[in-house]
Amino acid sequence: MGGGMAGDDYSDILASIIEAPRDRPFVVAQLGQSLDGRIATPTGESRWINRDAALDHVHRLRAAVDAVIVGIGTALADDPMLNVRRVEGRNPIRVVIDPSGRLPETARCLADDGTRRIVIEADDLDSRRLLPAGVELVRIARARGALPPRAIIAALHERGMRRFLVEGGATTVSAFIDDRVVDRLHVLIAPAILGSGKAGLSLAPISRLEEALRPPTRVHVLEDGDVLFDCDLGSLI
User: Fold this and answer.
1) 7-201+213-236: CATH number
2) In the 8-state DSSP scheme, what is residue 128?
3) Where are the domains positioned within the chain?
4) For residue 21, what are the contacts with CB-CB under 8 A and spacing of at least 6?
């Protein structure tokens, strides 16, 4: 690897996911942002804050996990395919958290390409919603108006998945961190200053600095200048 990244260190990052303990779920969350912590401009434009090496990293993460998870906001705004295209590897199971049944049948992540597809919704919705053939529906009870991340991971783990990538958006990643189910957080920072726009993580407020999360962190400079912060949140759970 160029740009100051040690190849062995980078391999260790992926190995820590692939070789994660098999007796419980292992959750990785990732977020891409600018130097000033923005994930989008005030108009919502977010492609592409991060550059090619960071995108390659996200695809490597997809190839290393059993399932990739996104929230309905990201699914509607970006219409992502959630497959592995930029690197070698298999496609992960695609999971969309859609509490209120807003995901259209035409969403690209629901396309039948031989990969397992799952939609998670609240158990108080009409169960007759239309989904493409082969898409699995998982229903979870709301708690304080939202679907609890811990319950989502437990339901997916019961269905045979062990390694997860929570890919977006910021609201979903923040909820998973707040519920203390994230083992590793990968923050990809581009050397760009937006000056305004949508902020990244938004967690439950703290009153004292001693309450701040301070996970053990490794820092890697990607070959085209973006910086990867590999944060071991699991050590704080």
Assistant:
1) 3.40.430.10
2) T
3) 7-201+213-236
4) none
Q: Residues of 95-111 as b/e, b for ≥16 C-beta within 10 angstroms?
A: bbbbbebebeeebebbe
And the tokens for 49?
Answer: 């804050």
Comparing CA positions, the residue from 30, 9, 28 lying closest to residue 18 is 28
Reading the block at residue 97, the tokens are 């958290």
Per residue in 33-73, pLDDT tens? Answer: 999 999 999 988 887 899 999 999 999 999 999 999 999 99
Cα distance between residue 154 and residue 100, in whole Å: 20
The predicted-structure confidence for 116-165, as pLDDT tens digits, reads as follows 999 999 999 876 778 899 999 999 999 999 999 999 999 999 999 999 99
Predicted structure pTM score: 0.93
CB 166 within 8 A of CB 172: yes
DSSP label at 124? T
Please name every residue paired with 28 in a beta bridge, in sequence order, or none if there are none: 165, 184
What does residue 95 show for φ and ψ, rounded to 5 degrees? -125, 130
Joined tokens for residue 40:
């989008």
